[in-house]
Records
---
Amino acid sequence: MEIDVLKKVPISEQDPGVRAHNFDEVCLGYSKEEAVAEASRCLNCKNARCIQGCPVAIDIPAFIHQVSEGNFKEAYRILSDASSLPAVCGRVCPQENQCEGQCIRGIKGDPISIGKLERFVADWARENNIKPEPPKNKLDAKVAVIGSGPAGLTCAGELARMGYNVTIFEALHEPGGVLVYGIPEFRLPKSEVVAKEIDNVRALGVKIETNVIIGKSVTIDQLMEDEGFDAVFIGSGAGLPKFMGIPGEQANGVFSANEYLTRSNLMKAFDDEYDTPIRPGQKVAVVGGGNVAMDAARTALRLGADVTVVYRRSEAELPARVEEVHHAKEEGIKFNLLTNPTEILVDDNGWVRGMRCVKMELGEPDESGRRSPVVIEGSEFEMELDTVIMSLGTSPNPLISSTTKGLEVNKRKCIVAEEQYGKTSKEGVYAGGDAVTGAATVILAMGAGKAAARGIDEFLKNR
Ligand SMILES: Cc1cc2nc3c(=O)[nH]c(=O)nc-3n(C[C@H](O)[C@H](O)[C@H](O)COP(=O)(O)OP(=O)(O)OC[C@H]3O[C@@H](n4cnc5c(N)ncnc54)[C@H](O)[C@@H]3O)c2cc1C
Ligand code: SF4
């Protein structure tokens, strides 16, 4: 296969006109030939800056070198030594800001498609039934992990590899956290990809108990005092949605993005075989501009709605990944930028009939460094709608912090934990991921889970 070393080998995607009407995966992945060709562009740098950009420190040049030689099994061994969820990360990590953002090839041409190669190797391993090696030695100590999102799964996988007895306690009926209830099927297939990577974590010896709400079914203090757990990792995420606090927000037809996506993804409302109700809406506005907003908008579109994203800053400030915005536009999502809702308009029966908005302009930068939006006087207008999906961010649920003695939280209800090893104010209790940082990314949650596993290992060895 002929390649231009300065250009990425293009990857196939479903046609936008077709995929706007189905929930199948958008990106179709590399073939073997394409993966080998893309890997051959890598310079195998001695001082590989890509590794510094990876929060779980995958030996990127080594795995890419194995792909370029066609040794996919060895490539998978290198990947799975550092990451419990390579097929997930290869699909949803913001590589453009991490490994690929640092890639030396990117100085003159396109960076190496590290994420797409990671996805290729993990998919190849799954299709060929190759699994990570279980530990040879077992230790006596027991560790409880709260939450089965990327932070919990990574921490559990790392500890199991070290030989510890690990049990994950998950509040929902299915493990995976945001990977199963938030990110839609068309970006991250659930049974084919997420469930299989969770099976690999189980294959390391990790037990997963679902339908257990820590703080309600049992507390952390009881786990440690009565149930014999020697250490605890909290990876309970940040699943509590925020609202704007504007008039009319209580109307029927206003959803949080979390509820809308959970109905569709976890409860499978998009699939006719399930009877979970969802209100697809005919004219839908999604308020917000992050990845979650793009996922909600693209889900509503696939359910048959005419969808507009309403965001108060300009396109340059959209926090969603560029790839997601590009895909959303290709599929026919409209964007009403520099626009802010001031009121949800409600009909006589208590249902949404529209949204009053104002136009904004960008003023001076605020503390986040982004130019803050300022209302343009006299710019009020109304949008006719039947459904509004609020996607304004989330914060940690205070259930665990309010039921655990001596666990410090900050003003935003995030658990206070040391950055290096996730140690909290309570002895033997570690934390990481969105529960500590607030809503962030899969790979940062995984990096925190991995760091905490090292911290827990040190703690248990030095007791
Ligand atoms: C719609 C959406 C799209 C996203 N897209 C991307 C993306 O493209 N790329 C990216 O990198 N990031 C993305 N993110 C962010 C990313 O998914 C999160 O940062 C990441 O999942 C955080 O991992 P976590 O393990 O800390 O928490 P979570 O994934 O939230 O997992 C926490 C788990 O803990 C469980 N839990 C909570 N409380 C309790 C309790 N008391 N007892 C037992 N279990 C409990 C929850 O049920 C959940 O399963 C997205 C987020 C959303 C919502
Ligand atoms: S920085 Fe880029 S070119 Fe260099 S080893 Fe990493 S992926 Fe390859």
Note: The CA atoms of residues 55 and 447 lie 5 Å apart.
---
Amino acid sequence: MSADQSTEPGPSRGPKKGAPNAEKSGEPHIQVSALTKSFGDTKVLTDVNMKIGKGHIAVIIGGSGAGKTTLLRILIGLERATSGEVLISGQDITQMNDRQLNEMRRKFGMVFQYSALLDSMNVMDNVAFPMREHTKLKDKEIQAEVTKKLNSLGLKDIESRFPSQLSGGMRKRVALARALMLEPEIIVYDEPTSGLDPVTSRMVDDLIVETRKNFGVTSVIISHDMVGALQIADEIYLLSKGAIVAAGSPQELIAGDNELFHQFLKSSGAPEQVPPHEKPKQADAVESLPT
Ligand SMILES: Nc1ncnc2c1ncn2[C@@H]1O[C@H](COP(=O)(O)OP(=O)(O)OP(=O)(O)O)[C@@H](O)[C@H]1O
Ligand SMILES: [Mg+2]
């Protein structure tokens, strides 16, 4: 697929067998159309188009300065688009006022680069934070939820530790637990594996796949890491100088002849073959979220 062709998954790429189907209702979970963003005279995003199905893992990959973080910030409503549409479950967030945007943002869980845990708070208080801010639950109930969430991510008896007493991989898990507290429909990860060694990076990738499996979330990941992208993505979008220059499943991109993709692949040192990865879980996953 060349840069000027459609960047959205084509008909053959539609919902996979067994893929949870937002498309049941005829629409993708996230749809970006003709999105542009300029800062003053500088155009940072040009005609970005994406379609991300419910429960899918989409990886947006690209070099430094390509516009990845800007795109992510627009998706979650932290930055306004200059033109174009961003539909979340069919609702155009570019048309929303600040109050509506705040409401919509509750659908998102965010795992920031470097985890962004508050160093002065222990794990319990970090993870409890969104629930204390946004719900009226009693603190005992919140604490029980925190422990449940931490345990479900393989973290036991670390509630009283401080972030500085955790390994990098543990910090990512704690950040993910925090992002999951309000049971989001969509989780957005900014560079989840940057700064981690290869083994820990693969553990974080596994965690992203497990989280999709257990919680049925749609995942959008910003990354430099082609090795991880090939392993976990349902769709990869390659962003270069603000434009999507390649899009498709890892299998399609590797088998295809998109030169920019193959250049990026080569420079990243990733193997030119796609390891098997778990497919999206059935559509009932979201409904079966623990309450
Ligand atoms: N608030 C802003 N005002 C002006 N220019 C900005 C602003 N935010 C980003 N840019 C510019 O937009 C371009 C894309 O930046 P962005 O942070 O989205 O890139 P990125 O792909 O996330 O890069 P990296 O991999 O280094 O994080 C850069 O040239 C940057 O200088
Ligand atoms: Mg960035």
Note: DSSP finds nine helices and ten strands in the chain.
